[in-house]
Design a protein that fits this description.
With about 400 residues, the chain is an alpha/beta fold. It contains 15 helices and 17 strands. The strands form 5 sheets. Strands 4-10-9-8-7-5-6 form a 7-stranded mixed β-sheet, sandwiched between helices. Its cofactor is pyridoxal 5'-phosphate.
């Protein structure tokens, strides 16, 4: 199946609007992707004619909602090629997922002096939960710095492992530099438990959990063209068996008495309370949309965007792009001498171009790069070469203003 970017763009209603009198050029998908009509319609359908609480009713609508909701677990397993559907746990996104691992798996097992190896490429969501363990239990965080080009060779991660290392926490793709981390290469050198943040990677390339080597792998719906407040974490059955529940309440119990509680089997053991029913149904629609297009096709299209953007941005000798690792994703964080990232973003916005400005929830990486902020253009499957050309033209205009 060939990839038709114009047909894809037609599925996204928001891309037809104007901003500040100009056609919208949306280059902030690394923060949140836009939603196709198929997702919007699935959400509307769920609320208009199929909504009820799940798992708890015997009536028609509850059974229908439960079927639609639980069906998404299988969709996620298929999307990630997970070995088992019951290893998929619904979450509100990657932040909840990573905190679940910190509280449910790591906190009961790690003691003062034990180490967690993590990279400087991490989003705060894959940093702060481990800081909780440092603050509360005396766990030591061992940081691995990327190479000057932004790459993170597996051997650098493996070299940081010591006799007290208990786990590795690493991103699959940096949300700042687009660096793709060789997870399988790390796994080849160690059998330590490995937590992988797949928030950026899963939307840009095929993920095969049967061969990747992660013990924990999380995704977040709002970056996958699905609703905010949706997501999941895949946890191998062996690791699930080692975990305590993260949140207590309805659905995650089998029995409750005055004196005791027994828990439901996974995955419900880790899913307390009324969930984001329609959010997850929307995520399922988004993943089916992606699979229909083909993740290999999407990845090939985005490689073309990356290469065109790399060539065009390299021609701007007054622009600094942070990280240029081989095989990186189509994410470009930029700085310009004499212009703050917020100023760049504001000027581009006047041209109808949406980019991100700030630290991108990656302050340790910003400090390592020696910058306080950057303007980030993050591309998606609905972007075109013309979007990149408009970005370069507007960056040139911005440079002229600050020259």
């Amino acid at each position: 199946m060939s990839f038709d970017v114009n047909a894809v763009r037609a599925d996204f209603p928001i891309l037809s609007r104007q901003v500040n009198g100009r056609p919208l050029v949306y280059l902030d998908s690394g923060a949140s992707a836009q939603k196709p009509r198929q997702v919007i319609e699935a959400i509307t359908r769920a609320y208009e004619g199929e909504y009820a609480n799940v798992h708890r009713g015997l009536h028609f609508l509850s059974n229908l909602a439960t079927d639609n909701y639980e069906r998404v677990r299988g969709i996620i397993a298929r999307f990630l090629n997970a070995p088992r559907e019951d290893e998929v746990i619904f979450t509100s996104g990657s932040t909840e997922a990573l905190n679940m691992v910190s509280y449910g798996w790591a906190a009961p097992r790690l003691q003062a002096g034990d180490e967690i190896v993590l990279s400087l490429l991490e989003h705060h969501a894959n940093i702060v939960p481990w800081h909780f363990l440092r603050e509360r239990q005396g766990v030591v965080l061992k940081w691995v710095e990327p190479e000057p080009d932004g790459s993170l060779p597996p051997e650098k991660v493996l070299a940081a492992i010591g006799p007290r290392t208990q786990m590795i926490a690493v991103t699959h793709m940096s949300n700042v530099t687009g660096t793709v981390v060789d997870i399988a290469g790390i796994r080849a050198g160690t059998d330590l438990p490995m937590v992988v943040d797949g928030s950026q990677a899963a939307v840009h390339m095929p993920v095969d959990l049967s061969t990747l080597g992660a013990d924990f792998y999380c995704i977040t719906g709002h970056k996958l063209y699905g609703p905010s407040g949706s997501g999941a974490i895949w946890i191998s059955a062996d690791r699930q068996a080692e975990m305590r529940p993260f949140i207590g309440g309805g659905d995650m119990i089998r029995t409750v008495t005055r004196d005791a509680v027994t828990y439901a089997d996974p995955p419900l053991k880790f899913e307390a309370g009324t969930p984001g029913i329609v959010n997850q149904i929307g995520l399922g629609a988004a993943l089916e949309y992606l699979m229909d297009l083909g993740m290999e096709n999407i990845a090939a299209h985005e490689r073309g965007l990356r290469d065109h953007a790399r060539d065009r941005l390299r021609s701007l000798n007054w622009l600094q792009v942070q990280g240029d690792a081989p095989g990186k994703g189509a994410i470009f964080s930029m700085t310009m001498e004499g212009a703050h990232a917020h100023d760049i973003s504001t000027i581009l916005d006047k041209k109808g171009i949406a980019v991100r400005a700030g630290t991108h929830c990656a302050m340790p990486l910003m400090e390592h790069l020696g910058i306080s902020a950057s303007a980030r253009a993050s591309f998606a499957m609905y972007n075109t070469h013309e979007d990149i050309d408009a970005l370069v033209e507007s960056l040139t205009f911005c440079r002229e203003l600050f020259a």
